[in-house]
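Human:
Focus on the backbone:
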Amino acid sequence: MRCILLMFDSLNRHMLPPYGCDWVHAANFQRLSEKTVTFDKSYIGSMPCMPARRELHTGRLNFLHRSWGPIEPFDDSVPEILSKKGIYTHLVTDHWHYFQEGGCNYHTRFKSWEFVRGLEGDPWKGEVKEPDKPDLSSGQLTMPGLSKTRQDWVNRKYIQEPTELPQAQTFEKGMEFMRTNRNADNWYLQLECFDPHEPFTALEKHQQLYPHDYDGKFFDWPKYDRVGETKDEIEHLRYMYAARVSQCDEYLGEFLDLMDEQDMWKDTMLIVCTDHGYMLGEHDWWAKIRMPWYNELANTPLFIWDPRCGRKNERCDALVQMPDFAPTILDFFGMKPTKDMLGKVLADTVANDKPVHDYVLFGCYGGHVNITDGRYVYMRGLANPENKPLYEYTLMPTKLPHTFEVSELQDIQLQEPFSFTKGCRLMKIAGFPQHNARVVQHEWKTLLFDNETDYAQNNFLDDPEVEKRMIHNLIRLMKENDAPVEQYERIGLNPDNDGGI
């Protein structure tokens, strides 16, 4: 038995043909849908990039306890579990955040791994002289301490030919593993592609699929902010994103060709997913993190093929989310989920739509705590604009780019074990959300939407009975996840009151 998890980054389901899009050129995603079960109610868990990937390893949410961080000493790791049971595990990725301090030990859980460099702000090529670049008065995203924009313009100089694209190399290395091990049994391949993540550069042939008149400023990487661009600029960036999706589609096609050529469908599980979507002007927002986790971000594309049941070219309406992948992969190899995994095995869901969740939680550390039953989405906002109390619980005091600052470590408290920390006490560190200076500018009010009548989430639903039910189940799932007590206070709920208030 073999299993492949193919993950794209920032892939929008509403721009894929299997999900009703009729203008983005992505025929291979349609082909994929015909070979798999396509899920309509797949949701994110913990956001953004590395929190999502931690769930791939651990099968449980982490955004209630921790921001962007590495695998903790007490974490269960699916690749590590598989390796110890004689299943060969291999990672191929061009996702450079794995190699920052906040993601420093994910790849080491695999038996072997390959990293393709050069995307976004990856500190890859060293040039002292300022790189040539267009006028960036449009305000490309910059992050203090990372110099992402400058480094990106250095990196672009070394990625000029199609074969130099990190995406091309990533797929080729993944397929090389598949060819090399075509006659071997018992292996797991995690193949990760950073595309279509920003900046939205794509091959000319893919850009030509979306002809449009545009003579405005250079614009392929928006701020994580409110939309301030013109209608033409918004349309241009959407076309640039679409070109990236078409580029992803081309390499997906090569991957599917190899699956066909090697007759891998008979014994290889395939999961194709993304970590989250991307805002392209919807709700007047660009990107992610700063805004609530609307459907464009939270309701993600998901395709699963399980050779044990052979079901394909059908849709599944069951509610699922990323923490389910870990126990599902273990189950495929004949192993039981660990006691700390709260995700559900999806074998029967793929086979016959068996429900596994009545509700799921999702969110980002320090933001809304969200819950959905597949129809209603409830986003519980902050009780006060200071977003306190809020703490990080960790034995690995590193975040996205670096270790915690010395100033953040001056008043560490000792936290007694949570149910999932295997008896380990933790550091309890006063925390603040990812991109805090930006987050606090937003009005983090409580929101309720009905996806059945308002999937675009343009109209807040005023329904006290539905809200009461969602609060009850939000508290129930927070307790199931052993959420810290201050998380309830932060969003104005009382866990000891059935009504929550």
About this structure: Residues 231-261 form the longest helix (31 residues). Confidence is low (pLDDT under 50) at residues 138-147, 435-441.
